[in-house]
Design a protein that fits this description.
- The chain has 318 residues and is α/β, with parallel strands linked by helices.
- The protein contains twelve helices and 14 strands.
- Helix 7 links the parallel strand 6 and strand 7.
- Helix 3 runs parallel beside helix 5.
Length: 318
């Protein structure tokens, strides 16, 4: 996991590669083509790049019209603006009409750490997965981002892709294949299984390595497809592990942990613990400091898991 890549650039470059093969593909941004990864696209296809001002709501409606006329727009903007500012437009113009629009929320989670709560995105997954017809993807490295963009382009219908700005190490092999509704079991563990997504995957994997050294049997599952979820994998894992811990740079309300809990509470009740930003207004600070505050750093995950497993074992002995 040595090569580091900016998710936004990977996303934009992959949209460009697809556009070279498919003239229906357009790039849309809101006063942010460079930071949305569309700089090379704009240079190559200036007539197929649409730059709106800071009018995400209008851009969504325009994208819906483009899609209904046969185009395939990829619209990228900062996550809280593209999901919450224009939720009504996404709901009524995109998913209700089943418009073939792909929206990407960038700088997601706690990435805009210094800009505070207004720019951090801790509710986007909850919002997007509540919408009928919307698929929700959270890729974890450059290879998976490219794979998700490819599958989104092939699929006819609205797709939401969540990407961050933190440079990510690459751990997937070049022949990796992504499918909607499929997760990835990276390792198995009897004591506890960590289910995570996006930029938290590599951090969780490193934490798991430390935990294994301490004698804790830790499983790790990456969930790039939040909606639909990999229900088959979840059911299998719930029968093979003592505790499930979901880890996400998102509110624990309605995100990955909520989706996992909703399914397992009906199909195979097991202890599911949600690790993420609690039901509070997030604070301002450096990205590293915020990860530490919410136990989402490597060391924070390690300590949290150790305490969970200790409590579990002590309950057995009592």
């Amino acid at each position: 996991m040595k090569e580091l890549n900016d998710p936004r650039k990977v996303f934009g470059n992959q949209v460009l590669e697809l556009a070279k093969q498919d003239p229906r593909i357009l790039a849309v941004s809101t006063d942010s083509s460079g930071s949305s990864g569309f700089g090379p696209f704009k240079e190559c296809f200036p007539e197929r790049h649409l730059e709106f001002g800071l009018t995400e709501q209008s851009a969504i409606g325009f994208c819906a019209g483009l899609a209904l006329s046969g185009k395939i727009p990829f619209f990228c903007a900062i996550t809280p603006f593209i999901t919450m500012r224009c939720f009504e437009q996404v709901r009524d113009d995109l998913v209700y009409t089943f418009a073939n629009v792909k929206i990407a929320g960038r700088n997601s989670g706690l990435d805009y750490s210094y800009l505070g709560y207004t720019h951090q995105s801790l509710e986007d997954i909850a919002v997007m997965r509540s919408l009928s017809n919307m698929k929700v993807l959270v890729p974890s490295d450059a290879i998976e981002i490219r794979a998700c963009v490819n599958e989104a382009a092939k699929y006819t219908g609205p797709v939401y892709i969540r990407i961050g700005s933190e440079k990510l190490p690459t751990f997937h092999q070049s022949d990796y294949h992504f499918s909607f509704g499929k997760g990835e079991a990276l390792q198995k563990g009897k004591d506890i299984t960590l289910i995570t997504m996006g930029g938290m995957v590599w951090r969780t994997m490193e934490a798991a390595e430390e935990l294994v050294k301490l004698g804790i049997e830790v499983g790790v599952i990456s969930m790039p497809s939040i909606k639909p979820l990999d229900y088959e994998l979840l059911l299998q894992v719930s029968k093979e592990t003592d505790i499930i811990l979901t880890i996400e740079d998102h509110s624990i309300v309605g995100g990955l942990g909520g989706a996992v809990s909703e399914f397992l509470s009906q199909e195979n009740p097991i202890r599911v613990v949600r690790l993420g930003v609690p039901d509070v207004f997030s604070t301002t600070g450096s990205y590293g400091d915020l990860l530490e505050k919410y136990h989402l750093s490597k060391s924070g995950i390690v300590d949290y898991v150790i305490n969970l497993v200790k409590k579990k074992k002590s309950s057995y002995s009592n």
